[in-house]
Amino acid sequence: MKRILWVDDEIDLLQPYIIYLKGKDYEVITASNGEDALDAFGSQTSASNQTFDIVFLDENMPGMTGLETLQEIKRLHPEVPVVMITKSEEEHIMEQAIGEKIADYLIKPVNPSQILLCLKKHIHQHSIVSEQVQHSYRQEWSDISYMIDTASTIEEWQAIERTLSKWDIELASLEAEQGGHSGMHSLIADQRTQANAAFSKWIAKNYEDIIERHQPNIVTSPDVMKHTIFPLLDKGEKVLLCVIDNFRYDQWKTIQPLLSEFYSVRAEEQYMSILPTATQYARNAIFSGLMPLQIQEMYPQLWVEEGDEESKNQYEKELVQTLLERYRRRESFNYWKVNESDFCERVISQLKGVQSPLNIVVLNFIDMLSHSRTESKMMRELANDEAAYRSLTLSWFRHSPTFELLHRAAELGFTLVLTTDHGTTRVKNAVQIIADKNTNTNIRYKVGKALNCSSKNVMTIEHPKRVGLPCPNVSSSYAFCTGTDFFAYPNQFNYYAQYYRNTFQHGGISLEEMIIPLITLDPKMR
Prior knowledge:
Elements: E1 2-7, H1 15-23, E2 26-31, H2 34-48, E3 54-58, H3 66-76, E4 82-86, H4 91-99, E5 104-107, H5 112-122, H6 125-150, H7 154-178, H8 183-211, H9 224-234, E6 239-244, H10 249-259, E7 263-272, H11 279-288, H12 292-298, H13 316-326, E8 333-338, H14 341-351, E9 358-363, H15 365-375, H16 377-382, H17 386-399, H18 401-411, E10 415-419, E11 425-426, E12 429-432, E13 445-448, E14 459-461, E15 477-480, E16 485-488, H19 493-500, E17 504-505, H20 511-514, E18 515-523
Parallel strand pairs: 1-2, 1-3, 3-4, 4-5, 6-9, 6-10, 8-9, 12-16
Antiparallel strand pairs: 7-18, 10-18, 11-17, 13-15, 14-15
Helix pairs in contact: 2-3, 6-7, 6-8, 7-8, 7-10, 10-17, 11-13, 14-18
């Protein structure tokens, strides 16, 4: 039974309300002044080891005023919601009460339905919302399964990723409030597994056609600049392209509320990352407007092979320049790669003087977060599932210079394009692969000679050039993990299977890695 403390110097006149609430199975304790209200808290706590669930507090009382009583209640019991009830409509009283963090504000005379609505809003909201959300998901479950079973276009897969992300976020939020897992958690996890299995088969069947442009409506990594950035430049807009490494669609939805204070969404799109879903391939394809094989053939000095020691993405600025030159675009541009907070602050300081219409900033924090989560036991505990991973992303974004950077860009009137080169997926199941010593180290994809893997869930590309990928050797092929699988060699297989299990990785085939956000935001301050 929920406990209500109702404090009013005319409490006797409120007996009809009290009888009404008791009939609704609430326990109502009354007090006629502030001192008695505070005494009621003390006696209630000592008698039952529980405090009140809510307080209805009259603002205008003799002796200790409602506002003074409110201050004391909030000092001693900050977790208890207090609803201020008053005859006064004076603005300064409302502002003072709100400043003391009241839960709600009612003007007399009140009616029973207002009181009941307050109780449902402040005491029962979580359970009502939880029941409604779970009911809605159960109703939509069969529709989602049908979407997965029948999906045949990129638009349908994008809709599936949006839908799964929405429900994953909502159900995880409910579980966090309830302090535990529900049956809904396993249902959404099972549907994502089902979706990734079907999506991987669709990719295996259609990927070559997509890359050969037999399906021209699909936006892939090389299309991002001409699909989104060039039209903005043609309109004369000043653009900030922000590429966040390892940025998934659900992470975008997590940080979107923070950005909504400064930006409105002009277009919320998704595009498809090329394979491998790794920086060397996908991000270089974005900045060059070319497939990796084309980069290697046209600009060999700007392509770094898998086995080379140097950084695989050190020529991004040069690749952007080649793209602009090929399209005979005359825009000047700025390019920054941010790996640490002090450099981000320097970028912020430079934004005001920027004259170039195109400005590109690459942020590697989420990439570093996923790597540190793999290597650090503490980070594994902090981000032990997708919900925790999103929470860490939100915490980083809220407190990082990146948030200030984007805020500053809004003040200066930049159109913001927020995207990534690929997402990540939490891997769970190790599969054995045999390869020679020159094979790359990524655990979601392999490129090399004589790759041998018995798993049926691995997609292989025997003729890389057909899909725009370089061949380090004449007999090189590519192998990609799907779903939540990852590669491990027979030597020390169990050790590496345990070490990488439940870490966030990229390079392979999954909705999370390949169907990624491409968001255009208008500054509200322009």
